[in-house]
Amino acid sequence: MTGAGAMIDEWYPVGLFSQLTEEVSKTALMGKPIEVTRTADGAAQVRSSGGRALPVRVRYGHVWSSLGNPFKELFAIPEADQPGRRFVDVGVVRVRCSPLRAVENFLDIAHFPFVHTDILGAEPHTEVESYKVEIREKEDEVWATQVKFYQPQAAKSATGGITTEYMYRVPAPTCSVLYKTCPPRPKEWDVITLFVQPLAEDLCDVWPWMALFDDVTPMTDLIHFQQMIFLQDRSILENQIPALLPLDPGMEIPTRADMTSIAYRRWLKRHNYLYGAQLVAQ
């Protein structure tokens, strides 16, 4: 597939397993129409528009598939098997942007006070402190650690402003996992993920999912809180220029706060993950 590069062989979310029925749900993956359904025996099934059976996995509340032949299993999130957590299927938000732009925005800390004002950030607390970024060669993942930021309401379960600690992990080109301070259990991490389905190079469905320690907040409130956060991001994402994610270092001017983005773009280019990317200035 032209422009897909190595991303053709990756796993992508294509729907919530809990919402599948025997009636065919039509969607798309990397510009190709696909059909998702539940078989009579309860299994998830994904087919191309021509009827070709595509590979399927069901994990983290979602159905995953690929147009190619994934050479590795879907990435692991150990917290998904941890007793006592609440698993939150947030739903889907359609965004007219590159799927890679959606992931990069999720990794951006500096926008909190300006886009998520009085929730994930607030003036005058706008400085991004130094943090650590690395590409872990063994896992082949991008990680940002020792990230700290003051937040008026770090989570729905938070009762006041706290300095929140973050860790970001990118295990796949259109997926990111965020570990952040858990207000009810300071020794644990809340897990918030962004699973992005590339419908086209400039259009995607974003499927957030969470694994939390929160026995108090109603499920509806947890879902609405996370949807509100991402809907605040959508207007920013849909107005970014260029629409595709630039991978040439000279196309945009980074700051110290953009270290994670720089590593992510370098990692994408290294692996030929180019669907939704722009290599040179146009």
From TrEMBL:
Gene3D superfamilies: Naphthalene 1,2-dioxygenase Alpha Subunit, Chain A, domain 1 (3.90.380.10). Keywords: Oxidoreductase. Coiled coil: none annotated. GO terms for molecular function: oxidoreductase activity. Residues 95-270 form the Vanillate O-demethylase oxygenase-like C-terminal catalytic domain. This is (2Fe-2S)-binding protein. The lineage of its organism: Bacteria, Pseudomonadati, Pseudomonadota, Alphaproteobacteria, Hyphomicrobiales.
